[in-house]
Amino acid sequence: MMARQRGDSLLPTRFAEAGSVQEDLSRTVKAEVGPVALFLLELYDQDRNPEYLEAARKGLSFLEKEVIPNRQWYDYETFWSDVLELQPATGQTSALDTFGEQPWLAVDTVYRYQTDLWRPLLAAYGRRPTRPFVLIKTVYEGEHDSK
User: Fold this and answer.
1) Helix, strand or coil for residue 128?
2) How many CA atoms lie within 13 A of 3 on its CB side?
3) How many domains does the chain divide into?
4) Which of 11, 20, 110, 130 has the greatest number of C-beta atoms within 10 Å?
5) What backbone torsions phi and psi does residue 106 show, to the nearest 5 degrees?
C-alpha cells in the first residue's frame, strides 16, 4: 500500500484484478484516503514502524490539500439515514439503537439535533464493543431555528 502512494500523497484505493492501481478511479473517490490513513495509524499504534506513520501523515496532508478545501468528502447520510431508514417516529437515533447488535453492523451512527453534540458523540465513543461511528444528521439550514 505504501509503495503505491503517489507523489502528491494520494493513497490509491482502487486496483485492477492484476493489482495495478486504477489511478483515475482512485482520484474520483479521493476522500477514501481517510480510512486508509486511519488504518495506517492503527497499524503504527500496534507495530511502531515509522513508515506507517509517515505514510499516514502524507495521506492526511493529501486530504488537507485536495479534499477538504474542495469539499469533496462523502455525505454518509445518504448511505445511513435515508437508505437504512434510521428515522423512526421518535427520530434522533443510531444504527445500533435501531438494529441492535448485528454481525453486519461494523459502523455506528450519531443522529441528533441537540446543540451540545459532544454528549451523544462521547456516548458513541464509549460504547462497547468499540466501533467507528459517523455523525450523519444534525440541524439543516432553516430547521429548528437554525440560521
Assistant:
1) coil
2) 2
3) 2
4) 11
5) -95, -20
Count Cβ atoms within 10 A of the Cβ of residue 92 and give its class: 0-12 exposed, 13-18 middle, 19 or more buried: middle
Mind listing the pLDDT tens digit for each residue in 49-101?
Answer: 999 999 999 999 999 999 888 877 765 554 545 544 444 444 677 888 888 88
- Rounded Cα distance, 24 and 80, in Å: 27
Quote the domain boundaries for residue 84.
77-137
Asked whether residue 94 falls in the same domain as residue 122, the answer is yes
Q: What share of the chain is helix, strand, coil (3-state, %, to 5)?
A: 45, 5, 50
Report the distance separating Cα 31 and Cα 74, nearest Å: 7
CA atoms within 13 A on the CB side of 10: 19
Q: Is the full-model pTM beyond 0.85?
A: no
| Range of weakest confidence among 24-38, 39-53, 132-146 | 132-146
Are 102 and 128 contained in the same domain? Answer: yes
Q: Please indicate, yes or no, whether residues 60 and 103 belong to a single structural domain of this protein.
A: no
All three cell numbers of 127, joined, read 460504547
